[in-house]
Batch of 2 targets.
Target 1
Amino acid sequence: MNRRKFVTNTASSGAGLMLGSLLAGASYKQKPSFDGGGPRRNFMQEVLKYRKIDTHAHADENQYKTEVNLDFADRLGISKLMISNFIRPFSEGTPDDFRSKNNFIIKCMKAHPDRFIGTVALNPAFKKESLEEIDRCRDAGMTGLGELYNQVKIDDPLYYPIIEKCIDLNWNIMMHSPVGYSRVKLYPAEPKNISLPEDFASIAKRYPEALFQFAHIGGGIDWEYACKVLKESPNVFIEVSGSNNAAGMIDFALKCVGEDRLVFGCDYSFYQGVGHLFSANLTDAQRKKIFFENIAKRLKKAGVYVN
Ligand SMILES: [Zn+2]
């Protein structure tokens, strides 16, 4: 979850808003219709030609509705969404809480097995229950952890047994990144145990075999700083979702960590998520990697094959 809706000079504003207006008339499970030819139609054809896996999606009963997820995904050509029901900031994250959140995800996966890949919420402060939850959710078809939140920092020793289990399973570990760190003052609502880029770099070094995903550089963090800190962490994906994508963000991230370490996500900001990858100066091959191939390769390691 990225929790701030900045109004800023955004790379997404061009392509994102254009997508919004192009798709406004399209309805669920319909291909967008166009009012003629020309550049508008060509742009949507360009958008729809890329296979896409949204590596950062949410589902719950209130805020992140299944039908809304699928509506956007259908319009934008997103074939799969990696959904989670994260433990909310400032909540204790008891085993009962995360089990019921994961149960909701399992329900969504059962309803739409061709669209949703479920990822697991847990709280390492409850070690035994969290390790058991990984087994339970894996048996139910879930893959990977995410979105992990602020209950425990990613480099806290409480995470070690969890990460070690994920290494055995080749599971992706996706965790929230903070809002507003360093370039502007840390957003006051960010809880104190939020994981900073340095924490990701440190745990990635301790466990080079583990597969991390640093969430939403468009969510409000100082993305230049985050990319620089994570430059030498080859096992950390930089995920580019978020609602406030400043101009040049993707281009900078690409230059910093390379095309094999960037992954597409929306975090419920669908137009921005897709739009800014078209605003960025990317080659066709780079877009394919970021939209689909990089995460598909990681999922394959865990035994999940997406075509
Ligand atoms: Zn988040």
Target 2
Amino acid sequence: MRIPTLILVFITALAFTVTSQNLYTQQNAANIQNEANAITGWIGPANVESVTGNAQNGTFSLRLTTTNAGRDGRYSFTAVVGTVYNISIWARKGANNANTAFENWVGFQNFTTTQVTSTSWLEYTFTLTATSTNPQIRVTASQNGPPGRQGYIDAITITAVAADTQAPTAPSNLTASSTTTTATTLNWNASTDNVGVTQYQIRRNNVIVGTVGGTITTYNATGLTASTTYSFDVLALDAAGNVSPPSNTVQVTTGAAADTQAPTAPSNLTASNTTTTATTLNWNASTDNVGVTQYQIRRNNAIVGTVGGTITTYNATGLTASTTYSFDALALDAAGNVSPPSNTIQVTTLSGGNGTSYTNQNANLPTVNWQAQNLYVSGTMGIGTSANSNFQLSVNGDIRTKELVVESGWSDFVFKPGYLLPSLKETEQYIRHNGHLKDIPSAAHVQANGIGLAEINMRLLQKVEELTLYLIEAQKRLELLEIITVQPTAPKN
Ligand SMILES: [Ca+2]
Ligand SMILES: [Ca+2]
Ligand SMILES: [Ca+2]
């Protein structure tokens, strides 16, 4: 039982041993497994020889000598395009100050010229991807100088690098941050790979939109549309093109587009209640695609105040009397877009002289201290009632005063010649017919229309004067009657 177990372990170990086949198969002086005193596989234009006494491996080495025909020796092998090959060549400089080098290789990706730096044997290795099925190694005996300069090579191995078939692990913990209206920044945790991650692919809605190198774990996704949701994930790739499973998917919603539309201009700006130092502005509201958040009030083009977007009035104070100001208003939205200005109005403050004029601009304005002013009302005025345009002053109530001076209406005309004093008979008939004295309004008329204080006094005086005339007339008649009574006529016999 023990022996079969040991055999099984041996066989298993053998199966997992990586054995790289040396593709340098031509039998010649530089072949390690099948060395021969030959140059089989090598061609000029340099002179290629198998020589003894100076081998790095075995008995022979290859010596290359520049000729008039050329400087390098060349060796081709059968390759698979896209496969990576490890190429190891031992080399040293030869006679005549040679500057031996590996250069001008054909059929390899990213080959760079490599100088042979010593007259002692050194190993030079190249890991290159074949771009041809028949790539060519070239060794220049000397990069310069006349013919006859020499270099040596030996112990060449060419092995194909085993293909990488193992994909990287999935990128993890993909997150999005700093999302704007048009961009977002993605970050993720690095993938691992048996060889190495060489690239990450970033997918937006399952379409690759960008790539970054295998050492970078961030990506700025741009060109997005505002107010839109996107799915992002990331894939890891290795040099062999193996693709990892996708990372977690992250949903990104871009921000709303910025408001770039200004509100409409405030309209119908008016001023009222203007005093010596203030005026009240009113306007019609502006409209905005999002919303008006503020109005700015300008006086002579300088902002003197602001109110909220729902307010359409402003009390401009701190003005100087008898001064004309220009006012307009601007509307703003939350994004700071500013509307065109409203209509401009000119406001002239009231005179600051002796007294304040009571006008329709400052009527009932609590900011005016009427107690401290001489009041002049240019229009009509009502106390306890509306102002009546037919009267300068209307009062709904009693007036108490020490004296009332009336300037118009008097009745001296009664004593002027030509005044037609009605007879008492006529007066009696008028009273009987109308129920009141002639020229005196009826009770109903006074009830309905009132009567002027000056007028009623004038009419009462008229009647007193008429009464005086009647009394004088009556006195005269009485005296005449007494004369007749005192001097009787002689009695008749
Ligand atoms: Ca050899
Ligand atoms: Ca891999
Ligand atoms: Ca707006």
